[in-house]
Amino acid sequence: MDNAGLKKAFGNALRREGFTRKGGDWYIRGDDTIVVINLQPNDFRSAWYVNVGVWIRTLGDEPWPKSHKCQVQIRVPRLWPLRMDEIDALFDLECGSGSDDERAAALSGFVTQDLAPACRAFLERKSLVDAIKGDEHFWVMLTAYAWLGLEPPG
């Protein structure tokens, strides 16, 4: 599978899960937040990083926020620390010996079973807060802590 094939397979799976594409990003909206998924190319190999950003709507009126501007951010493999190698390999075109169809099916399964449900959970404040409390890998802007009902670190 080449880069275009990976982006297409990933995008098709996200579309089936109700995400909307704008530019290179994928969005799902809730009353309080917008979740953004972004594929970022690895500069050193044929691989991709998957970034998730959560935009808190009451903290700014941005209809199509970029993931790197979101108040809450995380790289996807960090959401499943016990599966990081497996998830990284899924988005690394230099890994794996399966066919394009097998990788597309694996991407679709990951989106359907793992990524989309996690992103839908981040549309609700309580679920987002629970995720942040349980994982030190989330990056949270200081302005978001009050909305989240959390104490800033330090």
What does this structure look like?
The protein has 154 residues and is an alpha+beta fold. It has one domain (3-138). It is 36% helix and 21% strand. The chain contains 5 helices and 6 strands. The protein has helices spanning 3-16, 84-90, 100-121, 125-133, 145-148; strands at residues 20-22, 25-29, 33-41, 48-56, 72-75, 139-140. The protein has a 6-stranded antiparallel sheet with strand order 1-2-3-4-5-6, covered by helices on one side. Strand 1 (20-22) and strand 2 (25-29) form a beta hairpin. Helix 1 packs across helix 3 (100-121). The radius of gyration is 15 Å and the shape is globular. The model has no long low-confidence stretch (mean pLDDT 94).
How many helix segments?
5
Number of E-state strands: 6
Largest sheet: 6 strands, antiparallel
What's the order of the H and E elements? HEEEEEHHHEH
Runs with pLDDT <50, length 5+? none
Q: How much helicity do the residues have?
A: 25-40%
What coarse outline follows from CA principal-axis ratios?
Answer: globular
Cα Rg: 15 Å
How much beta, percentage-wise?
A: 15-25%
Distance between the first and last residues' Cα: 45 Å
Q: Largest sheet, order of strands side by side? A: 1-2-3-4-5-6
Secondary structure elements and pairings:
Layout: H1 3-16, E1 20-22, E2 25-29, E3 33-41, E4 48-56, E5 72-75, H2 84-90, H3 100-121, H4 125-133, E6 139-140, H5 145-148
Antiparallel strand pairs: 1-2, 2-3, 3-4, 4-5, 5-6
